[in-house]
Design goal:
heterodimer, A: 8-stranded mixed β-sheet, 19 helices, 23 strands, globular, B: alpha/beta, two-stranded antiparallel ribbon, 10 strands, binds thiamine diphosphate, binds iron/sulfur cluster
Chain lengths: ~575, ~290
């Protein structure tokens, strides 16, 4: 079945509730049983900027933003001027009569324009100017040929128990809705049909990470705000009382990661989160945790860089950085979820790995995944067995005298920990190279033995971690390989390519390190052609795979303009392949 | 079961101290261990978080839960440990370079939290492990390897900084007065809230300016001055004295709710919370 979808996009000046109205639109679609992907573009400004929010709606599962734009709602002239070239041939443009003009010459041939006296409707209904977004929302729902009911519910849901505000907003939305109903001369090409609503969730990657952490028993989150990781802090701060955890907004990222490491050392599941610049500041401590063998989970939500880069945009440029961040060598555990479910699941896995292998674990995401609201059918909420790793209590210490924190003769490089407070388990936890007891030691032999012991962990994990699965056609003409948020655009590009008669499949690398080398070898040897897709300039995953396996891909599809991959771009790249 | 009283030996490892003969750290360590012993805190209940420096090498010589971290970062680690397990006695231990150079922001901000940890700073007015460069507390004019023509920066005032930023116990000790230092450390550990002791330390190897006779001429005891330790302004006045004297003793001590007092979730130590069956089902309703 060929995919049908619409892309609804609203734009206006920052501070005009673009995001909140977008969220209400998306939720209304969700309740109609649609699949919804919401993507927002905003500059790194709080006021005075231009914001857009676009929502792709489809009766079939969707994984990313689709272009062109089907319905463009312009609250200001800038929205029209900057985005009219994104319009579909048969697009609908909704504009505010007092603010915006849509010159026919700039419109696609089959486009329709609805001019709505938004300001007037707001005034008549006793609202304030900023509320024209709600009028536009009502109008949008009407254009889609949908009942008003779900929107009513959403507005109530959105404003909670604020009675008067709900009434006013419902009135405004209804005014926009009725205006379209009474002025529409021909049926819209974008009708949304109600489907069964399986109570889908609608959340961002950061929310999924926050909830994954809470469910995994994370008891401390320490951070310093940095886009696009900040909303993890916000979400957890809001839940700290409900789930009896401590969320500490620290003086800087160095403090944040050290607080988390201190807590991890004392036996807590602890996490910190930041973006590249903050991760740079954390890097010395990242190495310290690796050297000392202390569990800690670190989220790096990537934005384009280097330096402060493009704070509110997306990219995948930090893969190599995280693999090499901090001096010298220690085993790296780097996880790269690419969907909401994976964010939720892998965050839980990250805590297990951190405690099992007594090591820092990095979760790599990016703005596209961190901040986009995406449908989820369900998250697995069943309690799962936590892997707290090898921790000796007083009895164990007594049985295994003398206790050695960094014992060498151990399985998988995992020496037993004792937590502060355990009688008999006193020791020195040492960032200097150390003896089995933890004392500082500069002898060459001990250095080598401790290094080798630490590295056993990554080998052990490589054997234990599940291999990624090849999704798609068994015998494909082209195999995509990628990581992180790029997953969404690839899955959709695959649909289009299949519709065009091509056989394609996809290997998503969930564990960047340890890299599933065996599986990659198998896939690379069987595949006819391989294209690695990633959001950076140099093909960092491609390089890493080559380094680890000696294997090279046939093509690289790379994008580094700060925008996410759109499916049609991948399709085009494939068409252009020689 | 009869319990034998704790002695310094209970806090001592088999690792031989590597400090230079005559080093002030040889005074600070017994004062610290003596305080632990006299307070009767068993070694396993103590977490000592060190930075990097000569003083921090002491981490090898303490039989407690010792954490030899990285330069300047002992305080945030100590905060993390205390947040995780409030039953522990948490002591952060740094040099003046560590504490007031790399770690200055943590010093100021940890004081503000009034978290119940004790901060001991070995102030030898130099970076010693890196062989004697200027530190934030080096006096103006002091010649060091990194300031061969004399230090031109104004020295940092740790005591005033601590008082100004909310530390609720602020004191100064001297590595050569072990009995007094031990008493101060005991008071600091017993104090509920952020307690801080700047410890004047001899470094016979590199610091030829601030030697024992130099101190002898300058140190005075706050006790003898009838100083009122709960008087904020009087404490600040003592901290900014201009007569060249070095006051030892408690500058300031007040009772204030600690970080833990102010968060209901810290009533029981976090490490004791059950985490194996956390149910988030109801909370997720907001995402529908
Ligand atoms: C990030 C970082 N910068 C520099 C150093 C080198 N370093 C080690 S100890 C030290 C200063 C030591 O001075 P202080 O903290 O006063 O301690 P002391 O040796 O005097 O006891 C420095 C700069 C380091 N280990 N890490
Ligand atoms: S260099 Fe100074 S501080 Fe370091 S051990 Fe020697 S005397 Fe002590």
């Amino acid at each position: 079945m060929e995919r049908t979808w619409i892309n609804w996009k609203i734009g206006g000046p920052a501070g005009f509730g673009i995001k909140s109205v977008g969220a209400m639109f998306a939720r209304a679609m969700l309740r109609l049983g649609q699949y919804v992907f919401a993507y927002d573009e905003y500059p790194s400004l709080i006021r005075g900027g231009h914001n857009t929010y676009e929502i792709t709606v489809s009766p079939q599962p969707i994984y990313t933003t689709r272009r062109p734009v089907s319905i463009l709602v312009c609250l200001d002239q800038m929205t029209f001027d900057e985005h009219h070239q994104e319009l579909a041939e048969n697009a609908i443009v909704i504009i505010n009569d007092s603010q915006v003009t849509a010159p026919v010459a700039q419109l696609p041939s089959k486009a329709t324009v609805h001019v709505i006296p938004m300001d007037q409707l707001v005034e008549e209904n006793g609202g304030e100017k900023v509320m024209r977004n709600v009028v536009a929302l009502g109008a949008s729902i009407a254009v889609l040929g949908v009942e008003f009911g779900p929107l009513n519910d959403i507005i109530e849901f959105n404003f909670g128990n604020k009675g008067k505000e709900v009434d006013l907003n419902v009135r405004l939305a209804k005014a926009g809705y009725d205006y379209i109903k009474s002025h529409m001369s021909q049926p819209s090409p974008f009708l949304v049909k109600t489907q069964k609503n399986p109570n889908r969730l609608f959340m961002t990657g950061n929310e999924a990470i926050a909830w994954g952490a809470i469910k995994a028993g994370c008891k401390l989150y320490a951070a310093y705000p940095m886009t696009p990781a900040t909303s993890i802090l916000h979400n957890l701060a809001l839940q700290a009382r409900n789930y009896q955890m401590v969320v500490k907004h620290c003086e800087d990222e160095i403090s944040a990661v050290n607080v988390a490491v201190g807590a991890g050392y004392a036996g807590l599941r602890a996490m910190t989160g930041t973006s590249g610049g903050g991760f740079s500041l954390m890097s010395e401590t990242y190495g310290m945790a690796g050297m000392m063998e202390v569990p800690v989970v670190m989220v790096n939500a990537i934005r384009p860089g280097p330096s402060t880069g493009m704070p509110t945009w997306t990219g995948q440029g930090d893969l190599r950085f995280v693999l090499h961040s901090s001096q010298d060598e220690f085993p790296r555990f780097v996880l790269a979820p690419g969907s909401i479910e994976q964010c939720f699941e892998m965050t839980q896995t990250a805590f297990d790995l951190a405690e099992r292998y007594q090591t820092p674990v990095v979760i790599l995401t990016d703005k596209q995944l961190a901040e986009c609201n995406i449908w989820v059918d369900k998250l697995d909420l069943k309690p799962r067995t936590l892997d707290r790793g090898l921790i000796y209590d007083a009895g164990d210490v007594e049985k295994h005298k003398p206790y050695k924190r960094y014992a060498l003769d151990v399985e998988h490089g995992i020496s037993p920990r004792t937590l502060p407070g355990t009688p008999g388990g006193e020791h020195i936890q040492n960032s200097d190279e150390h003896t089995e007891e933890g004392f500082s030691e500069e002898g060459s032999e001990m250095r080598v033995r401790q290094m080798d012991k630490r590295y056993k962990k990554i080998d052990a994990a490589a054997r234990l971690l599940p291999d990624p699965e090849l999704e798609g056609d068994a015998h494909a003409d082209l195999t995509f390989v990628s990581w992180g948020s790029t997953r969404g655009a690839i899955l959709e590009a695959m649909e289009d390519l299949r519709a065009a008669g091509m056989k394609v499949n996809f290997l998503q690398i969930l564990y960047i390190s340890p890299l599933p080398v065996k599986k990659i070898r198998e896939v690379f040897t069987k595949a006819k052609k391989i294209a690695i897709v990633e959001g950076n300039k140099t093909g960092q995953l491609a390089g890493w795979i080559r380094e680890q396996t000696g294997l090279a891909s046939d093509y690289k599809i790379l994008k580094y303009d700060g925008r996410p991959f759109f499916p049609h771009e991948i399709v085009q790249s494939v068409k252009d392949m020689k | 079961m009869a319990t034998t009283p704790l002695t310094q030996r209970d806090y001592t490892t088999k690792y031989t101290p590597s400090w230079c003969p005559g080093c002030g750290n040889f005074g600070i360590m017994p004062a610290t261990k003596g305080a632990f012993a006299e307070l009767g805190i068993p070694p396993h209940q103590i977490a000592m978080i060190f930075g990097i420096g000569c003083s921090s090498n002491g981490s090898n010589f303490y039989n407690v839960y010792a954490f030899h971290g990285i330069h300047g970062r002992s305080l945030p680690v100590a905060s993390g440990v205390k947040l995780a397990n409030s039953e522990l006695t948490v002591v952060a231990d740094s040099g003046d370079g560590d504490a007031y150079g790399e770690g200055i922001s943590h010093f100021v901000h940890t004081a503000r939290t009034n978290i119940d940890i004790t901060y001991l700073v070995h102030d030898n007015h130099l970076y010693s492990l890196t062989t004697g460069q200027t530190s934030p507390t080096s006096e103006e004019g002091m010649k060091t390897k990194s300031a061969p023509f004399g230090n031109i920066d104004h020295p940092f005032n740790p005591i005033a900084t601590a008082i100004l930023n909310g530390a609720t116990f602020v004191a100064q000790g001297f590595s050569s007065d072990i009995p007094q230092l031990k008493e101060l450390i005991k008071q600091a550990i017993k104090h509920r809230g952020f307690s801080f002791i700047n410890i004047m330390q001899l470094c016979p190897t590199f610091n030829k300016l601030n030697e024992f006779p130099w101190y002898k001429e300058r140190v005075i005891k706050l006790e003898d001055e009838k100083h009122n330790t709960s008087d904020y302004q009087a404490a600040l006045m003592q901290a900014v004295r201009t007569d060249g004297k070095i006051p030892l003793g408690v500058f300031y001590q007040i009772e204030k709710p600690t970080y833990h007092d102010r968060l209901e979730q810290l009533k029981t130590p976090l490490v004791k919370h059950r985490i194996d069956r956390i149910d988030i089902t109801r909370s997720l309703e907001i995402y529908r």
